[in-house]
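Every protein is a chain of amino acids, and every chain bends into a shape of its own. The fold becomes a row of whole numbers, each drawn from a learned catalogue of backbone shapes. The protein below has been through that process, and both of its lines are reproduced in full.
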Amino acid sequence: MLLNPTPITTDRLMYHKESRIFTAEASMLPEPSRAYDDACDLGYTLLSHRTGTEIVFVHTNTIRDREGDVLYDVYCPAPEDRVARRDNFLRGLVLHVFND
């Protein structure tokens, strides 16, 4: 079952309209929490500061440099999220949390 992991409002994030990517520095956000009751996947619940819509984003990838240091973590809408299933527009959104 999909949970409601750590909530963050979108006004705490930068949004890049052309690429449809939300970005933030890790130090500016609380820690992500479990997204599923039967797995250890981590995520955030993004709350639109404009519409109040909530959508769960889950960790999908970690991007590293040549030395293996983390550059940023990638979060995408959970396929099980009811809003993501209903609204194809949301499926293309991505959240990058940069390691600072």
Q: What stands out?
A: The chain has one domain: 6-98. Residues 6-98 form one domain.
